[in-house]
Design a protein that fits this description.
The structure is a homodimer of 203-residue chains.
Chain A lengths: L3 H19 L4 E2 L1 H8 L3 H10 L10 E2 H11 L6 E6 L3 H7 L3 H4 L2 E8 L8 E2 L2 E5 L3 H8 L3 E4 L6 H10 L4 E4 L12 E4 L4 H11 L1
Parallel strand pairs in A: 3-4, 3-7, 4-6, 7-8, 8-9
Antiparallel strand pairs in A: 1-2, 5-6
Helix pairs in contact in A: 1-4, 2-3
Bound molecules: nicotinamide-adenine-dinucleotide (2 copies).
Chain lengths: 203, 203
């Protein structure tokens, strides 16, 4: 298995290469990668050589080829279907976000406990009753659940998803969620970016 | 200046130390840090020794002391006031998110173009007309703007904020935003977490 920090860096390179493609750039060298994301040129070269990818001296790396290679390493070439639990503000913003397609994640089911929301559609997907999470996730064979419920409901929502066969939990709530040994939970905190910014402001 | 990858790691350590405090843990060693976030024990020790922080052999690092020290390095000990532009689903979810206080970021002004939203309150803050961004940000002396508008509006919102004296832009939109030399923009993408997850699922 590739260690998590390496995967996070690869995901960053994938994003930068995608942006370069949009701008019509065909080659990038490690110094340009460093300028874009702050990961050192040496670290970038080391990460890629680990996967047998070498740049051409004086030219750098071919953007399209490298992006496709990273997509394969990250298994982004396969569609990952997932359930979103909590169709509130953040849940709906995530359901409608075009960036999910870049990472081949496909929203398949949406759940909520709020009777006023059940039956409505977001991005073409109907909001279902959270009571049905275990049965519906098993029926749809969904292995991934994204939690966008209030912190106080996070453990309950995670337990229901795991009962339905989920093995991977992406937790957006501030609560600490415990999962069985054979499952994995990733906390998503975008406030860390604020910390990076806070440092820069004072310098 | 501390390089961005180091800052991102420090922000991760800060989060983990905060979670340890909540659990009543007083000491943590580098191996436990690695187990929590995947950053290698060696990298953790290297980062901290760079700031003169050494663990005690056999005991590790004192959680409360280390967290306070990292808060100082990251300048989290000072309140950073900011404006949020785009009071839609993501903007409102962010405005209401308790995690912002952990990083001493204080929402000071909220802007939108939608006449139906202007005048309403989120988390006690009134949504103001986006036409007033340059004047109001200057009046409030706000240097940070967070963009949660549609991608097509991102550049316009950023330009208005910079006209009002902003120098730091946190961009949640999928659009690429250009800022003048003396400003900084950070793109926030939490879909990168999906990439890390995608890799694990297939292994
Ligand atoms: N990771 C971050 O940096 C970040 C940023 C913003 C918000 N958040 C978090 O995201 C979560 C959602 O925030 P929001 O602003 O969208 O809140 P919200 O109140 O708008 O939405 C929560 C939704 O969850 C539903 N719900 C409650 N209990 C449920 C259950 N057991 N099963 C299914 N649905 C349930 C509610 O009916 C509601 O629709 C919160 O935990 C918030 O703290 C995280
Ligand atoms: N970074 C990520 O991973 C991520 C995840 C989800 C959504 N997003 C992005 O966040 C943004 C907001 O998403 P959302 O679901 O909240 O959309 P939304 O449509 O619910 O909200 C957008 C808001 O911006 C307002 N607006 C439009 N033009 C404006 C302008 N010039 N000035 C001020 N306000 C303006 C609209 O009136 C609306 O209230 C989108 O760009 C979306 O792609 C990013």
């Amino acid at each position: 298995r590739v260690p998590i920090p390496t995967l996070t860096r690869l995901a960053t390179y994938y994003k930068i290469l995608g942006e370069a493609q949009v701008r019509g750039v065909h080659n990038l060298n490690s110094a340009q990668i460093e300028a874009e994301c702050g990961i050192s040129a040496a670290q970038f070269r080391k990460d890629l050589s680990h996967f047998g990818e070498m740049g051409k001296p004086g030219v750098g790396y071919e953007v399209a080829k490298l992006r496709a290679r990273i997509a394969t390493i990250l298994h982004l070439d396969r569609t990952q279907r997932f359930a979103l639990i909590g169709a509130g503000r953040l849940g709906q913003a995530l359901a409608a976000y075009p960036g999910l397609n870049d990472y081949s994640f496909e929203l398949t089911a949406l759940f909520d406990t709020d009777k006023k929301k059940i039956g409505r559609r977001v991005n073409g997907i109907e909001i279902e009753d959270a009571d049905g999470i275990p049965n519906r996730m098993r029926e749809l064979n969904l292995k991934i659940a994204v939690l966008t419920v209030p912190g106080s409901e996070a453990q309950k929502a995670s337990d229901a998803a795991i009962k339905g066969g989920a093995r991977w939990i992406l937790n957006f709530t501030p609560a600490h969620v415990r999962v069985p040994e054979n499952c994995m939970v990733r906390d998503i905190v975008f406030t860390q970016e604020f910390a990076v910014l806070a440092h820069y402001i004072e310098e």
